[in-house]
Each structure stands twice: as C-alpha cells, then as structure tokens.
Amino acid sequence: MSAAEHTTVLRGEWREHEPLARYTSWQIGGPADRLYVPADVDDLAAVLATLPAEEPVFWLGLGSNLLIRDGGIRGTVISTRQALGGLEALGRGRVYAGAGVACAKAARFCTRNELVGAEFLAGIPGTIGGALAMNAGAWGGETWPHVEAVATVDRYGVQRERPREDYRTGYRSVEGPADEWFTGARFVFEEGDGAAARERIRGLLEERARSQPTGTKNCGSVFRNPPGDHAARLIEAAGLKGASIGGSAVSEKHANFILNRGDARAADVEALIERIRAQVERRFGVRLQQEVQIVGEAA
C-alpha cells in the first residue's frame, strides 16, 4: 500500500519512509514505513477504515517515554501532535481534551478556567493520549482519577464514547477494550483559584529544573518506582550515575534519566537500560520495570 493511494480521499498528510528521531524527545529512532498526520478525528477514523486488516498501526504523540529502535517501525504510524488538539471548557469543572494536546497545555488551560487539581499535568512531558494510555502521573497526581469518559476509535474507524468504568487502572497501567485508541477524554476538576494553581505549577516546574536534567535529550523517567522505594535511589546506590554506553549516559543529576549526549543510537540506550536493570538486581535483588516503551525493529 502506498501513500499515494489515499491522498485523493483523505484530508491529512502521508509521509513515506519518515525518519522518526525528530518525533521523539530522545531524538532517536529509525524510519516509519508510512506516517499519517490526520486533519481531525473524523479524518483519522477514515484512514483507519482504509488500512488493510493486517497493517500494523502505531500511535505517536510527543514522543516522550518512548524509545524507537534504529530499524524503525513497520506499518503505519499515526502522528497526533498536529491533530486531535481540541480543548474545551464544558462547565461544572469539566474539560474536554483531545489526545494530541500536550499535558502541560491542558494544565494551563484548566488554570485559566479557574479549575484546580490539574497542576500535575504540567509535569508530564507528553500528550493527553499518552497520559490516558499509561495513567501517567507527576507530583503526586495521576490521570485517571480525573477521567469521567473517554472518546475512542477502533481499528476499523468506529468512534465511541466510553465511561471510565470500562477501564481498570493502576500505577502506570490501564486495561480496557482491545484494539481501541484514545482520541480524547472528558475530565473533571474542582472549581477554585486559577491564579493559585498557576503559582503552584511555577513552583513545581522550578523544583523539577533543580532536580531533573531539563533541557537535555531524554525521555523522562526510564524505570517505574518499585513499591516503597525509588528507582533513582537504587540506580545511584548501584554506582551507575554517569555510566555510559556509546552516546547514551545515566544523568549525573537524576539517576532515573538516560541522556542522549548527541550521537546515541537506540541500541546504546537499550543496552544501558539492560545494564542498569542487571546491576540493580544483582546488588539489591530488585528487578526494575521499565516505564519507557521500547518499540520497533533493531537495525
């Protein structure tokens, strides 16, 4: 199937053999066979309906919390960063946010509409779609406690609205209907002092800048925190701050961050992840679980 087959019937943009490094916060990743940037949710549904049943489909938001291997991704990649960007205040504390909206933008939108409780979203370096998919959290807050309902589209282009009760959520985990993707959600927050919420966001972002390697090429936290402990503490105690493979290195500022120092390959990062996991398990008997998603094929 070629992109040209669809350009006359769809309103979005096809890109073939598209390098994906530019779409990830690590700035690492091989090419997609095909990448589609939908015009809106109806166009997204239309393109899904046209794809052969056997065509693999992968969704890509801001590309944080993601390592794309050097061989890239087979099939079709759907990029939501330029689409699914709706934000709407619905009244009575309710907000609709499309899956392509940056979490930080949603947080600011809530404060402008005199809502509180969404401040944690400013600490999540991804989109609403990604936050819904993994129950992302920051600063003590998580995504799904605020979800009232979600909008989805399935592999055949059928759109639905589902209540939160259709999903089972936990720490960085979400289970629900198979072969459906989130296109947006309706959230509920408390009405309150938006200016105070903005000030809290400012303070939290300042603290993050002091404790995390902001302004570098990284994916955010690489490992989940094990029960009753912190992955960063274990990694540092294992003597791994500054450890490197190829162009990748464990941050000296926060041990649960791996940096692309400029020329890292995905293979370097993946090897460093495995080295960290093995050394922490050998020293402390704790097997760290990845928070970062690793996808695609090796070169």
List the helices and strands and how they pair.
Elements: E1 13-19, E2 31-37, H1 41-50, E3 57-60, E4 66-68, E5 73-79, E6 87-91, E7 94-98, H2 103-112, E8 115-116, H3 128-134, E9 137-138, E10 141-142, E11 147-154, E12 159-163, E13 168-170, E14 173-175, E15 180-188, E16 190-191, H4 194-211, H5 231-237, E17 244-245, E18 248-250, E19 258-260, H6 266-284, E20 293-295
Parallel strand pairs: 2-5, 3-5, 4-20
Antiparallel strand pairs: 1-2, 6-7, 7-15, 8-16, 9-10, 11-12, 11-15, 13-14, 17-18, 18-19
Helix pairs in contact: 2-4
Describe the structure.
24% of the residues lie in helices and 28% in strands. It is of the alpha+beta class and 299 residues long. It folds into 3 domains: 3-79, Uridine Diphospho-n-acetylenolpyruvylglucosamine Reductase, domain 2; 87-210, Uridine Diphospho-n-acetylenolpyruvylglucosamine Reductase, domain 3 (2-Layer Sandwich); 231-295, UDP-N-acetylenolpyruvoylglucosamine reductase, C-terminal domain (Uridine Diphospho-n-acetylenolpyruvylglucosamine Reductase, domain 1, Alpha-Beta Complex). The strands form 7 sheets. A 5-stranded antiparallel sheet has the order 6-7-15-11-12. Helix 2 packs antiparallel against helix 4 (194-211). The model is unreliable at 1-8 (pLDDT under 50).
Domain module tally: 3
Helix vs. strand class: alpha+beta
Strand content: 25-35%
Most strands sheet: 5 strands, antiparallel
What is the CATH level 1 assignment of the largest domain?
Answer: Alpha Beta
List keywords for this structure.
299 residues; disordered N terminus; alpha+beta; globular; 4-stranded mixed beta sheet; Uridine Diphospho-n-acetylenolpyruvylglucosamine Reductase, domain 2; 6 helices; Uridine Diphospho-n-acetylenolpyruvylglucosamine Reductase, domain 1; Uridine Diphospho-n-acetylenolpyruvylglucosamine Reductase, domain 3; 5-stranded antiparallel beta sheet
